[in-house]
Specification:
The complex is a heterodimer of chains A (about 250) and B (about 400). Chain A has about 250 residues and is mainly alpha-helical. In chain A, about 40% of the residues lie in helices and about 5% in strands. In chain A, the strands form two sheets. In chain A, strands 1-2 form a two-stranded antiparallel ribbon. The longest helix of chain A is centred in the last third of the chain and has 30 residues, at about 220-245. Chain B folds into two domains: about 35-150 and about 180-270, Cytochrome Bc1 Complex, Chain C (Up-down Bundle); about 285-395, Helix Hairpins (Orthogonal Bundle), CATH 1.10.287. In chain B, α6 (about 120-145) packs antiparallel against α9 and α14 packs antiparallel against α15 (about 360-385). Classes of the chains: A mainly alpha (about 250), B mainly alpha (about 400).
């Protein structure tokens, strides 16, 4: 209880004003493989996360900033990427007759969104707009923890709280009333191998995938960062020694 | 200057016709600088470096950025994903903006503590305030360019402030927007001005330095240099000291850029701008929060706007509010206490600016705002009349040589 309180407080101070609206949101703080200065993505989890996105989320949520060619980051080779892209139908055109046409996707295409436009998305979802997920892990305070907590946060509403039609109670959602029905129940996806397909397992995979989608250059960024900090650390020492030597006759 | 002799005949030939080498030599080498400057005097060169980093990264970013409401957000993401090392250039630009303000705030507090704004450096100080104002305008417009939710709503809130001006307010807002709401015309003119203003800042920085070189740096003792025994040449002493400062600055900047690039940003700005959906809390960038707190502390819109601009305007007249002939806080025991109170109060204002404007936060904001103005308009003038200052040392070299514990 105390720990949870501490975590909530910590989350609030970190996210500051952004999360203030939520008030009593419950965030589960988890150790992610990509946290910290040496953190990296878990490729196997990201591949499973993409599978889960495709089978569970993609019906409503687009990821329009992600191209199939980016999946090289998940550990797929060129042939696998071409095969994945070809499973999608992509609109192209106009052709020589001036008509738009559908064709199988290629590596350079971006993931097609489920709806033609925001209005179509709202019309199919009770007026609510399912956000594009390309940047979602960066567009929420404590993104990874928040997304994990949200996916696992569906519960019965507390005593005395009325949940309107078409809304659902979620412990992690600011205001607690969310228009997205519970997406995960466990065993929603058939993983090859014996990966964890509980709600927590799939959520973990999805967060890995979504964090990569939001920040695809994270690994190279941290790698350069380690080298830069190492170099600049030496620069600090050398310049300090030089300063001491130059100033020796003034003191 | 004419006495300067260069070894290289080529340099001598050029310098005879175009005395740039003499000028450089005069600014960097001959320029006598007090020997007792502490590390608080490092932030001027760091601010200059920040400006240079901002201009260089900004020019590169502009090569891939599209100033159009339909494309701006995606063009920034394209920089982050597809442009070679675009993510690095953008994160450097984003984080250096914050570091620029950190450095400039420290630079200003240094000036406040050691009385660097007093005669004969009033214009030097005022030019600094001009730079600060231009920086705020530039940073505000730069934050609008990614066209995220905070960009859009920040622009809406801040531009709307001008509508509080009687009679011409609405016209000014329309002029700023280039239409009747924050839209494509707004984004375009903000991009244009965001590109222009750093160069104006660079121009004012030149004036700032010219004014600085007229009387030289103030120093921690706050008394004038009395002769060569009090000064050392800028090069190599302060150039190497500045290099060390730059190394530390770059190390901290690299840590932010590579490990916490979004820590000083707002998550909502990764949501594309949506004119139909207001964020739960619209907050400006952290470096505006103290002024935002002052704005919101006043229940009246025009009053809030006036106080917010007044908070900066009061800095312009500071040299005439604090009339004490003693510059440095070291010899002003009461001023020193009030300086630190002011410092804590300024931090408190920043904290309050980030909180929702409700309940206890409003009351605290009002108290802190009142204290901010009280400090400048009442405490400083009264102190300069009634404070008993400590005796000043005869010269800089005396305390530097006299006390063993103090390093220069």
């Amino acid at each position: 209880m105390l720990k949870r309180l501490f975590i909530a407080l910590f989350a609030l101070t970190l996210a500051g004003p952004a999360m203030a609206a939520g008030g009593d949101v419950e965030l589960q703080k988890r150790d992610w493989s990509f946290s910290g200065p040496f953190g990296t993505f878990d490729k196997a989890a990201m591949q499973r996360g993409f599978q889960a996105y495709r089978e569970v989320c993609a019906g409503c949520h687009g990821m329009k900033l992600i191209a199939f060619r980016n999946f090289a980051d998940l550990g797929y080779n060129n042939d696998e990427i071409k095969a994945i892209a070809a499973e999608y139908e992509v609109q192209d055109g106009p052709n020589d007759d001036g008509e738009m046409f559908m064709r199988p996707g290629i590596a350079a295409d971006r993931i097609p969104s489920p709806y033609a436009n925001d209005n179509a998305a709202r019309a199919s979802n009770n007026g609510a707009l399912p956000p594009d997920l390309s940047l979602i892990a960066k567009a929420r305070g404590n993104g990874p923890d928040y997304l994990f907590s949200l996916l696992a946060g569906y519960k019965d509403a507390p005593e005395g709280m009325t949940v309107p039609d078409g809304m659902y109670y979620n412990a992690a959602y600011p205001g607690h009333l969310i228009a997205m029905p519970q997406p995960l129940y466990g065993q929603d996806v058939t993983y090859s191998g014996d990966a964890d397909d509980s709600i927590e397992g799939i959520s973990n995979d999805l967060v890995q995938f979504l964090m990569w989608a939001a920040e695809p250059k994270m690994e190279v960024r941290k790698r350069i960062g380690v080298a830069a900090v190492f170099f600049l650390g030496i620069f600090v020492m050398v310049s300090y020694m030089a300063k001491r030597r130059v100033w020796a006759d003034v003191h | 200057m004419s006495a300067t002799q260069f070894k290289s005949p080529v340099v001598r030939w050029i310098d005879h016709r175009l005395p740039v080498f003499s000028m450089l030599h005069h600014t960097a080498h001959d320029y006598p600088t007090p020997k007792n400057l502490n590390y608080m005097w490092n932030f001027g060169s760091l601010a200059g470096l920040s400006l240079a980093i901002m201009i260089v990264t900004g020019i590169v970013l502009a090569m891939s950025y599209t100033a159009h409401v339909d494309y701006a957000f995606d063009s920034v993401e394209r920089i982050m994903r597809d442009v070679n090392h675009g993510w690095m250039i953008r994160y450097i630009h984003m984080n250096t903006a914050s570091f620029f303000f950190i450095v400039v705030y420290l630079h200003m507090f240094r000036g406040l503590y050691y009385g660097s704004y007093k005669a004969p450096r009033e214009l030097l100080w005022m030019l600094g305030v001009v730079i600060f104002l231009l920086m705020m305008a530039t940073a505000f417009m730069g934050y609008v360019l990614p066209w995220g939710q905070m960009s859009f709503w920040g622009a809406t809130v801040i531009t709307n402030l001008f509508s509080a001006i009687p009679y011409v307010g609405e016209s000014i807002v329309t002029l700023l927007w280039g239409g009747f709401s924050v839209d494509n015309a707004t984004l375009n003119r903000f991009f244009s001005l965001h590109y222009l203003m750093p160069f104006i800042i660079a121009g004012v920085v030149v004036l700032h330095i010219v004014a600085l070189h007229r009387f030289g740096s103030n120093n921690p003792i706050g008394i004038d240099t009395k002769g060569p025994q009090d000064t050392i040449s800028f090069h190599p002493y302060y150039t190497i000291k500045d290099v060390f400062g730059i190394a530390v600055f770059l190390l901290l900047l690299a840590m932010a850029v590579f490990f916490f690039p979004n820590a000083m940003g707002h998550p909502d700005n990764y949501i594309p701008a949506d004119a139909l959906q207001t964020p739960a809390h619209i907050v400006p960038e952290w470096y505006f929060l103290p002024f935002y707190a002052i704005l919101r502390a006043v229940p009246d819109k025009l009053g809030g706007v006036l106080l917010m601009f007044g908070a900066i305007a009061v800095l312009f007249v500071l040299p005439w509010l604090d009339r004490s002939p003693v510059r440095s806080a070291r010899f002003r025991p009461l001023f020193r206490i009030f300086f630190w109170l002011f410092f804590v109060n300024a931090i408190a204002l920043g904290y309050l600016g980030g909180k929702p404007a409700e309940g206890i936060y409003v009351i605290l904001s009002r108290v802190a705002t009142a204290w901010y103005f009280l400090h400048f308009l009442a405490i400083l003038p009264l102190l300069s009349m009634f404070e008993t200052t400590k005796p000043l040392p005869k010269s800089i070299s005396e305390p530097v040589l006299g006390s063993s514990g103090r390093t220069a």
